[in-house]
Amino acid sequence: MTERIVEHVVGGQPYRGESTRTAPVFDPALGKETKQVRLASTADMDTAVQTAAAAFPAWAGLSLAKRTGIVFRFRELLEARKGELAEIITSEHGKVLSDALGEITRGQEVVEFACGLPHLLKGEFSLNASTGVDLYSVMQPLGVVGIISPFNFPAMVPMWFFPVAIAAGNTVILKPSEKDPSAANWMAQLWSEAGLPDGVFNVVHGDKEAVDALLHNPVVQSVSFVGSTPIARYVYETGAHAGKRVQALGGAKNHMLVLPDADLDLVADSAVNAGFGSAGERCMAISVVVAVDPVGDELVQAISSKMAAIKVGDGRRACDMGPLVTEAHRNKVASYIDVASDDGASVVVDGRSVNPDGDADGFWLGPTLVDHVPTTSTVYTEEIFGPVLSVVRVSSYDEGVQLINSGAFGNGTAIFTNDGGAARKFVSDIEVGMVGVNVPIPVPVAYYSFGGWKHSLFGDSRAHGEEGFRFFTRQKVITSRWLDPSHGGLNLGFPQN
Length: 497
Fold this sequence. Notes:
Elements: E1 5-6, E2 8-10, E3 13-15, E4 22-27, E5 32-38, H1 42-61, H2 64-92, H3 97-114, H4 117-120, E6 125-130, E7 133-141, E8 144-148, H5 156-167, E9 171-175, H6 182-193, E10 201-203, H7 208-216, E11 220-226, H8 229-241, E12 245-249, E13 254-258, H9 264-276, E14 286-292, H10 296-307, H11 327-342, E15 346-349, E16 368-371, H12 378-381, E17 388-394, H13 397-405, E18 409-410, E19 412-416, H14 420-429, E20 434-437, E21 453-454, E22 457-458, H15 465-471, E23 473-480
Parallel strand pairs: 1-5, 8-9, 8-11, 9-10, 11-12, 13-14, 13-19, 14-17, 16-17, 19-20
Antiparallel strand pairs: 2-3, 4-5, 6-7, 7-23, 12-22, 15-16, 18-21
Helix pairs in contact: 1-7, 2-3, 2-6, 3-5, 9-10
């Protein structure tokens, strides 16, 4: 183990702070601790917030043209050097390099969207709303904003938020996952190289103490969060109670409804890709295939046969799927396979017997397929967040829709069919925020917004898109009249039209 410690980045510089607490960071493919990450105290977070607050007036006052130039330079640097970032992600998260590059590309789309900030920050103007009276609106930044991001996308999820927040004129505190912290520091350095003033983008590492410090600091105006539903609820309730704007994206249990007329070969490919990409550690992963019989048996056979081709191993060795992020998480996910058997499900493919192309100490769990999963089993009801794909059988379209709508989550879902009428009806009937029609992972592009329904989203604002710019700004409406002699005299009533 190296003694390297990942420090905070505050005011454009590494910042140790007063805290002496650290947490281990592992290379999941090796199963070895490679570094430590500093865990901030409340005082450390407060220092970062003060630094961001001091940088806010100058950054908010910078012209839109100059802000655009800096965001664009960040995009250019990211495009040129994203291979470096991908290697960092793979070394700490474990996902394969191609998947890491894909994550960065999706985040980069938000950076590119944010380059349109002059258009997206335009207000409105009404000439002569009343005689001699004009009305106009402006969008102004909030101030210091906080972002709390998860381990599964250490680059993409922060980039859902901070390009928009920065483009809108705010200063940012990013609290990344302590499991894979280095990507955040790399992006902070890239912002500095792009010309972003010190203090506009800050990284504070930590655990619950850092999160609570961010939620309770009165200077912080908003908090954006992505993670599990219980923590999303906590962040939303705590932040809202403290008077902040909060967008808190929670967990998921995404279903794929397969109708009998669907192309089962396409469905099997989609189920495998969406279920086992990034080892299932995606909030938009397909974790439940809902097969409308009589296609269930044939579909399970098709999926299991395609799973055999998945190469599991070190993400730096041209494999298809890497390890899970920690040993504890690997063991938790593996425990669901025993639960499935105990609850009467059929384990068709058991990932615990995988033979990976990687170090024996890595946190390995191969793709797993479980059929005939009872809807009362925790294998069905809980977010597993790993490479375990469940199959549930239903007898009709209506039964499938009812099953999906009865769940606690409403993040993403998909329907596979060649029946346009059924697909159109599904889009209308389903109570889920993001819907795919023959698309297994319906993640919107950056100029739309990302977010689910029900327990998958707390707050009324989704990530990126125009909603993102509205979240990170306040609207101010101005009623204006310039004096002339006709305005004189006593009038205690409303202005006359």
